[in-house]
Design a protein that fits this description.
The complex is a heterodimer of chains A (292) and B (393). Chain A is an alpha/beta fold and 292 residues long. Chain A has three domains: 151 residues, Rossmann fold, CATH 3.40.50; 30 residues; 90 residues. Chain A is built from 15 helices and nine strands. In chain A, the strands form three sheets. A five-stranded parallel β-sheet of chain A has the order 2-5-8-1-9. The radius of gyration of chain A is 24 Å and the shape is elongated. Chain A starts with a helix and ends with a helix. Chain B has 393 residues and is α/β, with parallel strands linked by helices. Chain B has 16 helices and eleven strands. In chain B, the strands form three sheets. In chain B, strands 8-7-6-9-10-11 form a six-stranded mixed β-sheet, sandwiched between helices. A three-stranded antiparallel β-sheet of chain B has the order 3-5-4, with no helix packed on it. In chain B, strands 1-2 form a two-stranded parallel ribbon. In chain B, β10, α14 and β11 form a beta-alpha-beta unit. In chain B, α12 runs parallel beside α13. The radius of gyration of chain B is 27 Å and the shape is globular. The chains are: A alpha/beta (292), B alpha/beta (393). Chains A and B meet through α2, β1, α5, α9 and β9 of A and α2, α3, α4 and α12 of B.
């Protein structure tokens, strides 16, 4: 069956180079209609998968960013009170009866669909990205389970809304808290790791074509060496791309050429004070020398 | 790649083998139910199941549920499907008869039988390996055979019951915290005026619903790390009982053992039978009684587990004598890293006179600036007496 590799190729066309495990998990999530749970360190491209998948399938990406205290009103739906009030005032002047007004203000016109409701009411199956699910409260996780198993949402005033198209659901987590077993069991799972050397070079080639091959190899070698150092915040793929863009913008052709420029460009890779302080010019030059 | 497993002729078929593989995973601690077997078969049907790489990736996506499981999966897969061409006579785990649901899924998925069936590719070379081998359980764990000590010798059932009471009291002393903020609550003490006004907008300013708010509980979680190295053997009894009691009393607590390595024993200690829990724990505590690398283990905790399990509302207990056989210099930075997660760190040291002993004093001196409290305790009664101290943390 070719569609497994086909999916990887489609993603590659969108500039996303997926590791085999991830491509397989995505393929299964799509074919079996299961949600996909992606875990991994920050900056390894979990969110990017969803974007690339939506682009590859030419469908909408609906994103729900989770945070502590996220509630149903922000995730599912809310009535548009202000518009309802205005409508009621206008109706009072027009002399409509209470029943008519009620029917009108509790119609879909006055409904504000939030990401989860939007996702099940699309014509074509969209990609629903539920980002950083571990930041949301456990109650929300439980509610989400219900939505993800039946793909239907009940609104008391309107009735139950069935999904017109089953969204492809991608959940991401970076381990802020332990997710419930129920959620883990319902999902396909893939652990997204930092890419290996060859993959990262391929990513760089896809995303920053202006960086020439030799410099790209140097950049990747440098970043990979940096990841092995004792750092507080390990640079992710996004940082590598920023770093490459910064070097390209500075007109650098060789990492070892100018220590001052390299040191300045490190601002894109190292994001804490301690890391900056540890990465002295000598250390950076040693790493760059090895990468070259 | 090592050669694929061969299955005996009377084997019931590929779907049974997949069920067998899931049973194998289950035995090795992956949490999988009957529905996963069905998902696994559907997954294999939608890929080229005869290609080991594809089958592995597909089963990995289905069977794993956490980073740890994903790391272990390859070894499990190798052990079951790639055991060097040896013949396995029974593909399904033997002791338990498969449940009816499992059998029905196995039958229902007949069509892709061929796909999965090629897994066993019987190669004619036949290296004359022991045909009867591989009857027993397949264990993917390469066990380190260091001195293994039975913890049951150390801890009795009464100890655990006593420790459970102590742990519960300590837990309560730590846990009863209330937030200063207020949050919406069905049966709150006060009326939430902001939400009252907001709600009343929809009904023309009439305050029909009275939303309430209350101060939410902010439960404190406990993570305990117990040192079981050689120098701690004498004190292991109260501490292990304490750990066992802690885990049984508090569903959110987290426990670890360390000597030269760090092991998470939370799952093992949750076992409903306290003695079996200890038995499982002693299996995990291989190398018990050896040297200790406190700094390295704390570092591993701070980097590996802490991001997932430790937050600003966690109290981390370290039960150790502070004697690091690797020498000094590692404990301080590890605790500093751990402390940056905002947790409180309490060190319980069994040695009363540790100030006099050079190596231990060095370790403790290094740790001291990062600790919220240090106590010397070596009995359960001593632990119980800490209640008042901990409540003030």
């Amino acid at each position: 069956m070719a569609d497994w590799t086909e999916l990887a190729t489609d993603l590659a066309a969108q500039g996303y180079v997926a590791a085999p495990d991830l491509a397989m998990a995505l393929h299964l999530a799509v074919t079996l209609g299961r949600p996909l749970l992606l875990e991994g360190a920050a900056g390894v491209g979990k969110t990017e998968v969803a974007k690339a998948l939506a682009a590859a399938r030419a469908t909408r990406l609906i994103r729900l960013q989770c945070y502590e205290g996220l509630d149903a009103a922000h995730a599912i739906y809310e009535w548009n009170y202000q518009r309802q009030l205005l409508a009621i005032r206008a109706a009072a002047e027009g002399g409509e009866t209470g029943r008519q007004v009620e029917q009108r203000v509790f119609s879909e016109e006055y409904l504000l669909a939030r990401p989860l409701l939007q996702a099940i009411r699309q014509d074509a199956p969209p990609v629903l990205l539920i980002d950083e699910i571990d930041r949301a409260d456990e109650e929300f996780e439980a509610y989400l389970l219900e939505v993800l198993s039946d793909y239907q949402i009940t609104i008391p005033e309107l009735g139950t809304m069935q999904a017109t198209a089953r969204p492809i659901v991608i959940l991401t987590a970076n381990g802020t808290r332990d997710l419930s077993d129920a959620l883990r069991r319902r999902c396909m799972y893939a652990w997204v790791d930092y890419p290996d050397r060859a993959t990262e070079i391929a990513i760089l080639a896809a995303r920053c074509p202006e960086v020439e091959e030799r410099l790209a190899a140097q950049i990747v070698g440098f970043v990979q060496a940096l990841r092995r150092e004792e750092l507080d915040k390990v640079p992710g793929v996004a940082e590598t791309l920023d770093f490459a863009a910064a070097l390209a913008g500075l007109g650098v052709n060789d990492l070892t050429e100018d220590p001052a420029v390299l040191q300045a460009a490190l601002a894109t890779l190292l994001k804490t004070r301690a890391d900056r302080a540890n990465m002295t010019t000598e250390v950076a030059q040693r790493l760059a020398g090895k990468a070259a | 790649m090592s050669r694929v497993t061969r299955f005996a002729g009377r084997d019931p078929g590929p779907s049974a083998r997949v069920a067998g593989f899931l049973g194998h995973c289950r035995e090795n601690g992956l949490r999988l139910g009957v529905s996963e077997t069905e998902t696994a078969l559907r997954a294999l049907a939608s890929v080229e199941a005869a290609d080991p790489a594809q089958a592995r990736a597909a089963l990995k996506a289905v069977c794993c549920g956490s980073a740890d499981e994903a790391r272990r999966f390859d070894a499990l897969f190798e052990a079951f499907w790639m055991n060097g061409g040896r013949v396995v006579t029974r593909a399904t785990p033997s002791v338990r008869t498969p449940t009816r649901a499992m059998r029905s899924t196995a039958e229902a998925t007949g069509p892709q039988a061929e796909g999965a069936g090629q897994q066993d590719s019987p190669d004619g070379e036949g290296e004359g390996e022991a045909e009867g081998g591989g009857e027993g359980r397949l264990l993917a764990v390469r066990s380190q055979s260091i001195a293994r000590r039975d913890l049951r010798e150390l801890v009795s059932r009464d100890d655990i019951a006593e420790a459970e009471r102590v742990a519960e009291r300590l837990g309560r002393a730590l846990r009863d915290r209330r937030s200063r903020r207020r949050r919406a609550a069905k049966r709150g003490a006060e009326i939430d005026f902001r939400r009252l006004v907001r709600r009343s907008l929809a009904i023309g300013g009439e305050p029909l619903h009275l939303p309430r708010k209350a101060r939410p509980d902010r439960p404190v979680r406990i993570a305990a790390l117990a040192d079981v190295s050689g120098s701690m053997t004498v004190y292991a009894r109260p501490f292990l009982a304490f750990l066992a009691g802690l885990m049984r009393g508090d569903p959110s607590a987290d426990a670890y053992l360390f000597h030269t390595r760090l092991v998470r024993i939370t799952e093992a200690l949750r076992d409903p039978d306290p003695l079996r829990a200890l038995n499982r724990m002693s299996l995990l505590a291989e190398g018990f009684g050896g040297g200790s690398r406190i700094g390295a283990c704390l570092e591993r905790f701070a980097r590996g587990y802490a991001p997932a399990f430790v937050d600003g509302r966690t109290v981390v207990f370290i039960l150790s004598d502070g004697y690091d056989s690797e020498g000094k210099g590692a404990i301080g930075p590890a605790l500093a890293r751990l402390g940056r997660r905002g947790c409180r760190i309490v060190w319980l040291n069994p040695l009363k006179g540790w100030a006099d002993h050079g190596a231990i004093a060095a370790g403790m001196a290094e740790a001291r600036p990062h600790l919220d409290a240090v106590h010397s305790v070596n009995t359960l009664a001593g632990l119980a007496a800490l209640e008042g101290e901990l409540a003030r943390l």
